[in-house]
Amino acid sequence: MAVQTPSVQPPAPLPTAPGDRPAKRRAGGRLRLTAVRFARNRLALFGLIMLALLFVMAYGSPLFYKWDYTELDFTAFQKPPSGAHWFGTDQTGSDLFAMTMRGMQKSLVIGILTGLICTFVAAAVGASAGYFGAWADRSLMWGVDLLLVMPSFLIIAVLSPAFQGATWLLFVLLLALFSWMITGRVVRSMTLTLKDREFVKAARYMGVPAPVIIFRHILPSMASMLIIDGTIQVGAAIIGESSLSYFGFGVQAPDVSLGTIIATGTPAAPSFPWLFYFPAGCLVLICLSIAFIGDGLRDALDPNSSGAKARAPRTSKNTSTEGRTS
C-alpha cells in the first residue's frame, strides 16, 4: 500500500507593512505630492513658465535672429524698435535685442552656477561644523564670521580688475565666496539637532564613515531648506552680478551682461527709453520669476504652510440661503 505524502508548498509571503515600502516608491510619492502642492500656487506656476520662456528666448533666439550682439548696423543709430531691430539700436548701431539675449544668457548662467556653489559649500561646511564639533566647529565658524564682517561688494570690486581678460568663471567663484555664510550657519544649527537622532546614532554605531553620514543621512533631512535657499541664492546672485557689472566690476567687454547694457542705456533713458526699459524689464522678470518659484517651493515642501493646503470648495449663495430657509 503506497503512502501518499502531502505536497510541500512554499509558504505564502507575509503581507508587507505600510512602513516597509521601497525607498524609491516613497520618494516618488513625495515628489508627486510636492508637484501637486506646487501646482496649486498660481504665482509659482507663472514664475516657472516665465522663467522657461526667458530661457528659451535667451538661448533660442540667436539661432534664427539675423543680428548678432557683436554686429553693428551703421545705417541705424539709436533707432526705436522696428521689424528690423526688435528692441531698437543703441548709439553704436548694436542691436539691443541681440545684446539683451546675450546678457540674459550670461546673467542666468552666472546666477545658477553661483547658487549651486553657494548651496553646496554652505551644506558641506555647516554640516561638517555641526557634526564634528570641537576644534573643527570653532575653526570653521571663525572663518564664517570673518567672511561675514568683510565688505563683499568692495572686495569683489577691488579684485575684479586683476582678473580682466581671464575667464568669467573666476567672477562666479568670487560671487560664491561671499554668499554662503548665513546658510552655513543655519545648516550647522540644524545639524546639531539631527546628529542626536536615532538614525544618525545607528549609522555611527555601525561604523559608517562620517562623510557618508553627513551626505547620505543628515543633508537629505534638510533637503527642502537647501532647495529653497538655492533658489534664493540664484536670484541674489543675478542681482549681485548685474550690480557689479553696472559699475564696471563684473562682466567685461567685449562680452555683455544685463548690468552693462543697463549702465550704457541709463544716461540716454529720458530721450531713448528703449535703451533702458527693455534690459531692465528682462532683469525684473527674471528676479520676479525666481522669487515666485522660491515661494512656491517653500509652500510645497512645508506641509504646514497655508499655500500647500487644498482650498475648500466655495458654496454658492443660493445653497446657503436654502439651508437657512429649511
Please give a structural write-up.
This protein has 326 residues and is an all-alpha fold. Helices cover 65% and strands 0% of the residues. The chain has 13 helices and no strands. The protein has helices at residues 23-40, 42-64, 96-132, 134-149, 152-159, 169-177, 181-194, 198-205, 210-218, 223-246, 258-265, 274-301, 317-325. Helix 3 packs antiparallel against helix 4 and helix 10 packs parallel to helix 11 (258-265). The chain is elongated, with a radius of gyration of 28 Å. Mean pLDDT is 81; it is low at 1-20 and 316-322.
What are the SSEs and their pairings?
Layout: H1 23-40, H2 42-64, H3 96-132, H4 134-149, H5 152-159, H6 169-177, H7 181-194, H8 198-205, H9 210-218, H10 223-246, H11 258-265, H12 274-301, H13 317-325
Helix pairs in contact: 1-12, 2-3, 2-12, 3-4, 3-6, 3-7, 3-9, 3-10, 3-11, 3-12, 4-7, 8-9, 10-11, 10-12, 11-12
| Proportion of residues in β-strands | under 5%
Order of helices and strands: HHHHHHHHHHHHH
**Class derived from helix and strand content:** mainly alpha
Please describe the biggest sheet, giving its number of strands, its sense, and whether it closes into a barrel: none
* Radius of gyration of CA atoms, rounded to a whole number: 28 Å
Gross morphology: elongated
